[in-house]
Specification:
Layout (H helix, E strand, L loop, with lengths): L1 H8 L1 H11 L9 E2 L2 E2 H20 L4 H10 L1 H5 L13 H32 L5 H6 L4 H10 L2 H16 L3 H9 L5 H29 L7 H7 L6
Helix pairs in contact: 2-3, 3-6, 3-11, 4-6, 6-9, 8-11, 9-11
């Protein structure tokens, strides 16, 4: 679990670096009255993902906000009911939940640069349509472009963390589920964490569209602000 601890301690530094470097000038191609709509979409997605990952990788953030919705029973399938025999106290359950939350946070940490790289290099042919689209149109577009890449990045790490099970609580939970397929558990968990990540990015995109002035980014304000004309 040393790798996980090191990753968590370096998480904040990573997010600071991501925020400081990924909003540099990006090439734009779809322009209207002095604005690059392509760059506006890229900035929208970058800021949305930065905010989402910063919140999800914050101490306690992932579990408190989203992982609770995943549920250990859902994660482990019908065999999750067996957990009732070992979750004999609220303290034990809380610690076990924290252990799974750490794995989920690590998954998000691994996924963050994949999203950042995709935003930097992706070609957006119909940026005007995405500007005019719904509250999370750009997020939906990026998710479709990336397809299953986030899961491919996360699942090996999640699987390794579960197999190592150096946290005795994780080990006890998994060993109690006779015949459980750890690889499948990792895949199921990765899929759910993937959904959580995209939901969070979509939420941030919606918030930025609703109040672009809060970003203090002249381009986003100009393109998405109340006075913008498309």
């Amino acid at each position: 679990m040393n790798d996980l601890i090191e990753a968590r301690t370096g998480r904040r530094a990573f997010m600071v670096g991501l925020s400081a470097t990924t909003l540099l000038a990006l090439p734009g191609c779809a322009t209207m009255p002095g604005y690059s709509f392509t760059e506006a979409i890229r900035r929208l997605l970058m800021l949305s993902s930065e905010r989402a990952f910063a919140r999800l990788t914050a101490d306690g953030g992932f579990w408190d906000q989203q992982v609770a919705q995943i549920g250990l029973a859902n994660l482990l399938g019908t065999r999750g009911d067996v957990l009732s025999s070992i979750l004999s106290s609220s303290l034990f359950k809380s610690r076990l939940n924290d252990a799974f939350a750490d794995v989920a946070i690590e998954g998000s940490y691994r996924a963050a640069p994949v999203v950042a790289d995709a935003v930097r290099v992706i070609g957006i042919e119909n940026a005007v349509a995405l500007v005019r689209g719904g509250p999370s149109a750009a997020t939906g577009f990026l998710r479709n472009e990336l397809s299953g890449q986030l899961i491919e990045v996360m699942v090996p790490e999640i699987g390794s963390a579960l197999r190592a099970a150096q946290d005795p609580l994780v080990g006890q939970a998994l060993s109690a589920l006779t015949g459980v397929n750890v690889g499948q558990v990792a895949n199921n968990f990765g899929t759910r964490v993937n959904d959580v990540i995209w939901d969070e990015i979509a939420r941030e995109e919606s918030a930025i569209r609703a109040d672009p002035r809060a970003t203090r980014d002249p381009l986003l304000i100009g393109v998405f602000g109340a006075g913008a004309r498309l």
